[in-house]
From TrEMBL:
SMART domains: CoA_binding. The keyword Iron does not apply. It comes from Nonomuraea harbinensis. GO terms for molecular function: ligase activity. This is Acetate--CoA ligase family protein. Keywords: ATP-binding, Ligase, Nucleotide-binding.
């Protein structure tokens, strides 16, 4: 197997290549641990596997049992090595799978399902040791699904449902079951992969494969933790390119959720805010519950790409219009002004006392009449809108059935997408008809609006998409050689050394000198020009301000001498190596923080936000994981209040936004090249000067791994 190319950090720039045909269309299958013993769970699994695989076209499904000569009348073999011919897939039902898997590897089996539990999900050393032994086997040519998995991947699914199909990837069987029951909403299912502990095949492998599969319209996922943040991003990159969105429930938003996830699959869920940021930059749609996952992913399967996010809202009451309009506003979904010709048509169709703008209130009076369809047609044909949203609030004979017929007829005619919010608890024939017609049906106003927002955002990303991995650096820069030897493992670089690292990567830093005496400090201050700043410089010193070891606004020699003496006295318990003298930046319009830290499972992660001494109190920050584009860097900056400050506040000049973006991109290069050697890096503050004058780092901290 050819190894994928690597970036400068040693991380892959492409997913591994897998020949999936033997898994999805196996010719010969061995079921190891098959039995016909009454009451045994393996009996049901054997029978289910044989029936389903033969129906899928497998030539033979062989039982393997150490004693029995036949299972259900089918000749059995004592060992997988005894099965005649090649074996594409082994289904391993035994409690101790390791010896069996070693035999499968020797046999040349291509894929193996491992049902057994009792591995890393236990959280014990024994469980982790057992999983490590499985990982050793998985380094061979045989691919392993599981352990702690089942046979959802060979389940049969209903045919003839409208639209594209949904692929499902879950780390929990029970959490996937209601998703695939989205078939009841007219959502066809292509396949459901339950990946369990992911000792080998992982979420990313299946997600990328499904994204490349013709006829798949969306991927719905339930994830407790990703094996590797880079492979997850590579899978998401494939999905955006293919126009197949990943709609993901990712648990771990709370301490309780994180603890349960670790107990269930042995994954570390990772910092939730970083997952949110990575999902945004990767085009993954994060949802919070199963119904939302079903309905949002199903909407992608049932609609063509949205051209935009402008909604025409047609309601049967003013209350509904107010409620949904409010939710649209909160979600950033515009309700544009309708064309004048549309409003003129509506005046001919509806009583003048109804609201004929957007939302359009039919009052229910026109719904059961021919005018009802003409109202819907007018909204669909309006050039100022991209999608029609029609809430159906309660089953009411003569109204709900009439609007259902009209919506289905318009949907079948093609053109602008239609979305329905069905908020009645009654699921009647009209509800079923909408689903069977392939119209996206949501069951709350909020989720319908959320779905439209998600579809518009994904298709906008897809249309202009250029993935970040093609331009990721593969060869180290000259800066790496210049600073690598300074990063002694397990150390904290002093401020001057930390800024030397920044300077090597082109991040502007303030001028400075290290003084060993008051006279040297005064001489440096005179050279820079007043006012100046003095700081203690000591090995392992991190937060100088907290210890009172910083003096600012010093305007003469006497002030510098006094400040020097105060810093030396205050640092009596430290190994002081000097006092740093810097010119004070007096024209800064904003104080920002830039940082690099390790965040599982993504590795080096950039932090950007408002800086200064109150950074941890304000907590106005955003995150990105390299590699990413300059456009993404600007989006990262835009997720904070920094652009508002940089635009100029209360007569202050505007800040140099381009210089901030430059600093982010240069720090990204540093993170890619040095990130695995650095546990934490802070630039705080990065002072942003007025437009054209740049930005400068005046303090920095580097802690090595």
């Amino acid at each position: 197997m050819t190894s994928p190319p690597l970036d400068v950090s040693g991380r892959p720039l492409a997913l591994r290549a897998i020949d999936w045909d033997p898994l999805f269309a196996p010719r010969s299958v061995a079921v190891i641990g098959a039995t016909d013993t009454e009451g045994s769970p393996q009996r049901a699994q054997w029978r289910q596997a044989r029936e389903r695989l033969l129906a899928r076209g497998a030539h033979a499904v062989h039982p393997v049992h150490p004693v029995k000569p036949a299972i259900d009348g089918v000749p059995a073999y004592r060992n997988v090595l005894d099965v005649p011919g090649d074996v594409d897939v082994a289904i391993v039902l035994v409690r101790d799978p390791l010896p069996v898997l070693e035999d499968c590897l020797a046999k040349g089996v291509r894929f193996a399902y491992v049902f057994a539990a009792g591995f890393a999900e236990l959280g014990t050393e024994e469980g982790h040791a057992a999983q490590r032994r499985l990982e050793e086997v998985a380094r061979g040519p045989m691919r392993i699904i599981g352990p702690n998995t089942n046979l959802n991947l060979i389940e049969p699914w209903r045919e003839g449902l409208p639209g594209r199909k949904l692929a499902v990837v879950t780390q929990s069987g029970n959490q996937g079951r209601p998703v695939v029951q989205g078939q009841e909403l007219g959502i066809g299912v292509h396949a459901w992969a339950t990946v369990g502990n992911e000792v080998d095949l992982e979420f990313a492998d299946f997600a990328a494969h499904f994204a490349r599969t013709p006829g798949v319209g969306a991927i719905a996922a339930y994830v407790e933790g990703f094996v590797d943040g880079r492979t997850m991003r590579l899978a998401a990159d494939e999905a955006v390119r293919a126009g197949v969105p990943i709609v993901c429930i990712k648990v771990g938003r709370s301490d309780q959720g994180q603890a349960m996830a670790k107990a269930h699959t042995g994954h570390l869920t990772g910092p939730d805010a970083v997952h949110d940021a990575v999902f945004r930059q990767s085009g993954v749609i994060r949802v919070d519950d199963i119904d939302e996952a079903i309905e949002v992913s199903g909407a992608f399967c049932h609609t063509p790409p949205l051209a935009g996010d402008r909604v025409a809202l047609c309601v049967m009451s003013g209350g509904t219009g107010s409620h949904v309009a409010d939710l649209c506003g909160l979600a950033g979904v515009p309700l544009p002004r309708l064309e004048e010709r549309t409003i003129a048509r509506l005046r001919e169709l509806l009583p003048g006392y109804l609201h004929l703008g957007n939302p359009v209130d039919t009052g229910g009076v026109a719904t059961a009449r021919p005018e009802g369809r003409k109202v819907l047609e007018a909204l669909i044909e309006d050039a100022n809108t991209d999608v029609l949203l029609a809430p159906i609030t309660g089953v009411f004979p003569g109204m709900s059935d009439a609007i259902t017929r009209d919506l289905i007829a318009l949907h079948e005619r093609g053109g602008k997408p239609i979305v329905v919010a069905w908020t009645s608890p009654i699921r009647d024939a009209d509800h079923r008809a909408l689903c069977e017609a392939g119209i996206p049906v949501f069951h709350s106003f909020r989720t319908a609006v959320r779905g439209i927002r998600a579809m518009a955002d994904f298709w906008a990303l897809h249309r202009g998409y250029r993935g970040p991995f093609a331009d990721a650096p593969r060869e180290p820069s000259a800066a790496l050689a210049a600073v690598r030897d300074r990063l002694v493992p397990g150390s904290t670089l002093d401020e001057v050394a930390a800024k030397d690292v920044l300077r090597a990567y082109g991040i502007p830093v303030v001028e400075e000198a290290v003084a060993a005496s008051p006279d040297e400090a005064v001489a440096a201050a005179a050279r820079f020009g007043y006012p100046v700043v003095l700081k203690a410089l000591a090995d392992g010193l991190a937060h100088k301000s907290d210890l009172g070891l910083v003096r600012v606004g010093l305007r003469d020699a006497d002030g510098v001498r006094d400040a020097y003496a105060e810093i030396v006295a205050g640092a009596s318990g430290l190994r002081l190596t000097g006092v740093v003298v810097q010119p004070q930046v007096t024209d800064a319009v904003a104080e920002l923080i830039l940082g690099v830290s390790h965040q599982a499972p993504f590795g080096p992660t950039l932090t950007f936000g408002l800086g200064g001494v109150f950074t941890e109190v304000v907590r106005d920050v955003s995150f990105r994981v390299p590699p990413f584009s300059r456009e993404e860097a600007l989006r990262m900056i835009g997720e904070t209040r920094a652009p508002a400050l940089l635009a100029g506040v209360r007569g202050r000049p505007a800040g140099d936004l381009d210089a901030v973006a430059d600093a982010v991109m240069r720090l990204q290069t540093l993170a890619l090249e040095l990130g695995d050697s650095i546990r934490e890096l802070d630039v705080n503050p990065l002072l942003v000067r007025p437009g054209g004058l740049g930005a400068v780092a005046v303090d920095a901290l580097v802690i090595t791994s």
